[in-house]
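Subject: sequence -> structure tokens, single chain

Hey, anyone have a minute? Need the predicted structure for the following. Not urgent.
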Amino acid sequence: MHRGVRPAFLVGRKMAASGAETQILVQYLVLRKDLSQAPFSWPAGAVVAQACHAATAALHVHRDHPHTQAYLRELERMRKVVLEAPNETTLKELAETLQQKNIDHMVWLEQPENIATCIALRPYPKEDVNQYLKKFRLFK
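Reply:
Had a minute. Here:
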């Protein structure tokens, strides 16, 4: 086991052993499905990389939020849900809604094309954000 990871696992175990209920946090990502289809036809690795970039950026930007800190402390409980948006317009509409509702998120823009490819929320309890994401299905 990597030396830097071990303390996070121990903290999670101590919390569970003490009987303290740990809140389950989820990081949601909404990735454009059309990028993998014509006319874009991006390879799977390039599409997956967009989700990775967005997730990393959201965790970094919101690193001081207590939910993000808790999410990163318990690596063995880390949960992500990847949803699909049909196109850039739908992704941008979601970003506007999240902005209006003060939901912390990051829109990843692929450069140099400046194409919105993915939205990543910081970790949230799912009941706090489900209402904004329920129209999106799991990415396939």
